[in-house]
Structures are given as structure tokens and as C-alpha cells.
Amino acid sequence: MSAMCLCCDSTKIYAKKMCNRCYLKDLRQRNKEKNKYKDLTISRLKEQVKELERIILCQKSELKKFQTYRKEALAQIWV
Length: 79
Prior knowledge:
mainly alpha
């Protein structure tokens, strides 16, 4: 008895106990799943970048407020 493909009745086994046609179909399916994962990861990273940019803008405005307060305080000390 010869080895059979796991997916179909073919006896020409090439890789991972599958015939060439089934192996290529499986490979395409796995690549689609990887691309979906990459798309999700990229979208999450974009959201994180937007959030970090918002935080940076807030910190810059807080720094400007502090610098203004410091200048006013130094001006009052030296008067």
C-alpha cells in the first residue's frame, strides 16, 4: 500500500504528506492568514503611534506652561 495524500486520494506525495496541489492550496491559505495577522498588527501599531503623538503634544504643552510659569516666577524674584 502506497502513501496517500492527507487531503485527497492522490498517491503522488511531495511534501508534508500531501500531493503538490493540496500542498500549494495549504500554503496559500497559511499565507493569507499571515497577511491578516500582519494587517492587524500594522493597524494596532498605527493606533499606538497616534496615541503616542497625542501624549507628546500634551507633554509639549505642559512643558511650555511650566517654562512660562518659571519665567514669571524668576521675574518676580528679580524685581
